[in-house]
Predict the 3D structure of the following.
Amino acid sequence: MDDFIKITFDILSFSCIMVLVVSGLAIIASLMGIFNFAHGEFVLLGAYTVFVFRETGLPVWSGMLAAPFLVGAFGLLLEITIIKRFYKAAIAAMLATYAIGLIIRETIRGLIGGKFWAIEAPIEGVFEIGDSSFSIWRGIIIIFTIVIMSGCYLFLTKTNYGLKIRGAMENPALARACGISTNKLYAFTFAFGAALAGLAGALVVPLYSLFAELGLRFLVQGFLAVMLGGAGTFEGPVLGSAMIGAMVPGFQWLRVEIPFISYLLSPVFAEVFVFITAIIIVKFRPHGLIQKGRI
Amino acid sequence: MTKIDKPRVNDASRRSFLKGTSALAAAGWIGALTGGFVLKPDWAHAAGSIKMGIATDITGGIAPSGNANWQTAQFAAKQINDAGGILGRPIELILEDTASDPGIAVGNVRRLVERHKVDVILGGITSSMREAIKNPIVKRGKTLYIYPQLYEGQECTPHLYCTGPTPYQQCAELIPYLIKQGNKRFAMPSANYRWPQLLNVWTKRIIEEHGGEVVLEEYFPIDQVEYSATVGKIKSEKVDHVFLTIIPPGLGAFTKQLYETGFHSNGGTLSCVYYDENSVNYVAPRELEGVYSCLDYFHTVDDDFSNKALAGYNEMWPGSNYKLTAGTAATGMYRGIKLYEAGVNATNGDLDREAVSAAIDGVTNVQGMGGKFSMVPGTGHAAMNMYVAQANGGKWDIIKSANQVQPNECA
Amino acid sequence: MSQIKKKTSSFKTILQKQARVIPIVEILLLILLIVIPFFVGDYLTVIITRMLILGLLAISFELCWGYSGIMTFGQGLFFGIGGYAVALFANKADFVQLWGVIPIGLIFGMCASFLVAWLLLLGKRPPELIFIALGTLTFSYAAERLVAGWYWVGGGNGMSIFEYLRIGSFEVEPGRLFYYIVATILLLVYLASRFLVRSQFGLVLAGTRQNEKRLAFLGYKVQKFKALVFCFAGAIAGLGGGLYAHHEGFIGPGNVGIGISTMAVLYALFGGAGSLIGPIIGVLAIESISFTLSDIDAVRGYWPIILGVILLVVVTFKQDGLLGFVVTQRERIGTFGILKSTDHKSSENSQHLKNEKNDSTS
């Protein structure tokens, strides 16, 4: 029973991390059709912001608060100068964003000295349930994710601006014909996606330490999550990232608990297995689990 | 093609460049410091300087150890140069960053061999690094290679000398002591590469010989950060002692998650044979309390030579985060430079690899950190003093010490 | 010059009239290829050999993207598999003969790419471009994680190859001989690829790139052609990987993953996609800059940033790459640029129309 609570908590917490990280990517992919290869680096920027704040003596939570705004502003700048040229060309967009990501990653690598930096969470420690202990910070991440995702959902469904965004997602030409400025929408959405990524990075960095490859870790899993869940809706990528988020620690737990499986899967095979499973699912449902047009 | 640069006398411009880059490095920007870096001595000799290549991790997961190595190398070279060099010739250090990445290291090391044409290379910290760079250095590069770090043994390549402790030296004292303390059930969470794989074979045998039992043995990718399943199992299997061979970058995540399960507060103990005074760069202090280690030197070892050397190092690098310790290979680096000095003294200045190698093979009773050391002829390894210690509030209390323990390798 | 055209092209009439600059570039590079080792020392010869091996990787990517419209972020996977296979044979089976290394690289590269093609390209519905791109990316990443965690192939350390490549009992050290071996292989691969893309098969590829749907309506099983060229490219990449492993004496997860896959893309784009000589120029350019910059201590750390900026500039402003400065759009066997979502460049290449006329018989 105890084990069950622990497994659930682990899966839930990692799923939430994935959802947080991927939501920004998903919004951009759904609305503008480009897969932002620099998304991982936005996450990294969020983590880096927290690091900078801490280095100048400010408390960690202030960095976490500032991260989404700073990264969002940076995203807006990028969009206005570079990204907007690529809306018609998905492949060129991928390459351009990869290049941007490379630049950001290497710059940060230089700034942090190429090393790993541990960052303490604002609230350290564990809470006990029965015999098991759970990290408080992971619990807080779960709560945050639920709040943020609910906020996004309400924003998309209950507000005027959200309505415009959904309209543009379904049919950009028609939206423009109705007088909605898709340019402004795209700019806002890109900045919003970047801000989400920055927030995710800031929240997650106490768990993983700050290092230059932090963004890359999530990039491929993020893409898989979006492909799996289906770009074009809100629930799709959330479902996708929840699934990927569940599979990664889930397979690890299966490995530990069921000896037969642990013969087949070492920790690293378990990770690769997630990828293969995802690709196979996407092959059979190329547009993702939740198709467009159901929001 | 440009050949060897002549050493310049009183190269003030280079020195101020160095100061500048150290300031930059201190500020965190390593752009100027990454990669090849030549440290020329400030006096010259007709025959030219002796070129030592240092190939170590200045960036990446193992950076705290690599930087300690590099600083120690500079300290040792300065000590020797200030005393007149080796047979009157100064040492010139050339640094290449192996970046904690064997793939990158191979290319950079090749530059040391083919472009700078160094006389000897010291470096490599993780066994994976050593395995990657030893071929370009020893075989293709036909250069002498001294490896300064503790490792898993079985490295018997000719012209490759190891100045760090071997599994026998580290575990022969430590494991029986742990078992005597009452630890019966052991867990071995490990990084998945050569050193833990081979070391664990060794350690498991000694544990079982002394009546202990290994209930968990797992191998993880080096950058794994999710250990919840494993630490959960450690708790449920009622493990007494964790013999840890996970290395950075996964190390910090593991120790943190283990701590959070309450392992330490429930009486569990941990040992890690590369933990030392430098480990605070990798692991939070609360996770270091009470941990055991067994190495060739700790700052609490009280002998004249070591104390003076440590003081000199601290004077050269005041306030540095990277200390002269054994777990980082810094003491092995120091030992390695002294070994090379002794070898060149024995060949009377002949820098040819075959000659120096033959001389090094028979070197005995050279002063290093933690005591004297002697090479065991024909094996490429050194006998040295070993100390079992336990972390206590940031310092390491020596529990047991053993003199001139044999390496027991390549017999 | 026209001599060479006759030897290698089946559409002599069309191409003779239009191809002008590319053959000049090719011949210049060929001459350079042959004579360079006599002018530079051993150290630089080794560096250039490495560049030539990477040229194989670049050609492999070019065949997929520039000629067939398959955006693959996973050529590194096949490169690395070839390398790992060769390394395993060398270390576990003590087999380092040159005549064996070449087929091993080719076969493993081809098998792996066949597997990937089967999973990604073939099937009931033709896959979207994005799916292929992300799919190859994922496989490349997964392979990197796999070999990084698998102890038998060295894990995160990778594998060192301790023996030199051999011909019979003669050891081939990296140096002049190795250079000429690689140069010959590169030349053969280049000529083979050139023959392929200027053949009937190549025409179909050009068609898929211009307008896939129309070609399908004409009766061609487009996916099968794509899969074929993908396998061919994969084999070449595998061969490159095998040579690389022996040349460097080392193969690691970094040679199998996203990093090197994207370098392949960068080489081709920078040099000029749409022709076979472009990627080679791209490799030479980028690797030379990288090499000279890394010798300047102050710049070494910033090189990846500069690389990123170069890529960004190329993708944004000059999709034609370096070759675009001297070669016109018309001259290349195919063109591509920022694909407009609905319309295609039907007017750009008059060759396109001529090809269609000839096509009516097949």
Observations:
- Chain A is about 75% helix and 5% strand.
